[in-house]
Amino acid sequence: MDIRAQFLQAMSCAANTVNVVTTDGAAGRAGVTVSAMASVSADGDAPTMLVCVHHLAAAAQTILDNGCFCTNILRDDQSFISDTFAGRLKTEDGDKFSCVDWVPMKTGAPRVRDPLTAFDCTVKTSERVGTHFVFIGEVQDIFVATGGSPLIFANRTYGSPVTISPPRRQRAEPGTLRIGTLHTFGPYLLPSIIRKLEDEVGPIDLDLHEGDQRELLELLRAGTIDLAFVYDFDLGSDVTALTVSELPTYVLLAENDPLAGKGAVALADLVDRPMVLLDAPPSRDYFLSLFDGIGEPQVAYRTGTFEMVRGMVAHGLGYSLLATKPASAMSYDGKALVTRPLADSVETSRLVLSQRRDVPLNKSTEAFVWHCVQIFGLDMD
Predict the structure, then answer these.
(1) What stretch of H or E contains 126?
(2) Parts of the chain with a pLDDT under 70
(3) Gap between the Cα atoms of 378 and 314, Å rounded
C-alpha cells in the first residue's frame, strides 16, 4: 500500500465534525461539505480558524472572490444537509440551498437557521496546498445553539458522540448495586429481578446504566459498574461471564405482511425485501452477518432503539430481525405485530452476566448474582 492510500486509511479513523462552508456576495452564493476545519487562534485582532476546500469545488473560487465564508457545524440530526452539499442528495429544484432555511450572517454568508454552531469569517489568507485551498478566516460573528450534539464523521460514516462516564474508583456508598444492561434487554430482564431482590432483602440503592455493548464493557473495565448484561461477543480475557439465556433470532413482521402466514421464514425470502435494522452493536453486525452467502440485505431504515424498530415494522416499512421478544404483540401506537422463527439454522447469540475477573463484589452485588443464578438456573462452575 502506497503512502497516499495509507494516509487516507489512517485519516478515516479520525473523528471530525461535519461542516457545511457557505459564502455569498458579489460572486454569488455557494457551499460545500468539509470535514477539515479547525481553530487557529483565539487571540489577535479577531479569533481565526481554517477550513480546507477542494480546488475543483465551485465554492473554492467563490469564497476567494467574495472574501468571506460561514462554517456551519451540523447537529447529529442534520446529515441530510451534509449529503446535499456533498452532492449525494439532490433537491427537487436543483438548488442545494433549498434543502433547509438560511439566515445571513454579518458578512452576508448564509448560516443554516439552526446548526449546532456557526462561525462567520472574512478571508484573512488563502493558499493552495496539493488539491485543496486552505482558507484562514477572521471570525466576525458566531452563532451557538442552546442544545444538541455534533454530527461526527469517522470510519467513513456518520455518527454521534457518546458521553463516557469517568471512572469512579471510590464508592460513595459501599452497598450500591451498580449494574449495566443492554438497552434492548434491560426492560425485559431487570424489573423482575430487582422486584425479587427487594422482596428478599429490602430497598436497594441501584445505580443503573443502559447502553450498547461497547459502552457497557468500557464502564465495566473502568470500574463504573460491577456487573453488565451483554452479549457473549468480544468480551476479552479480563471479563468473566455467566450465560443467562440463548437468544434465537426471529423475524418481526407487520400483521398484514404476506410472510406472516408462514410457520417459519427463510432468509432467502427476506433478502430482497426492505429491512428495518436495529442499528446497535453488536446486534447490527450479527443480524447482517446472517445473510452471508445469501445476498445483500436491503436495509431501508436504521434505528438504535428497539421500540422504533417495532413501530416501523408495524406500519409496514419493512421486516426486522430481533432476539428480544416482549410479551406484547403491539407497537407503541397499537399496531399489531407478528413474530416468526427463522427457517434457517443459524448460530444463536447468548446473553451473559459479566464482571471483571478477580474483582470482589460487595454484598448487594453478590446477592444480585445469587438471585440471577436462582432465576435463570445459571451454572457457576
Answers:
(1) strand 117-129
(2) 1, 162-174, 377-381
(3) 35
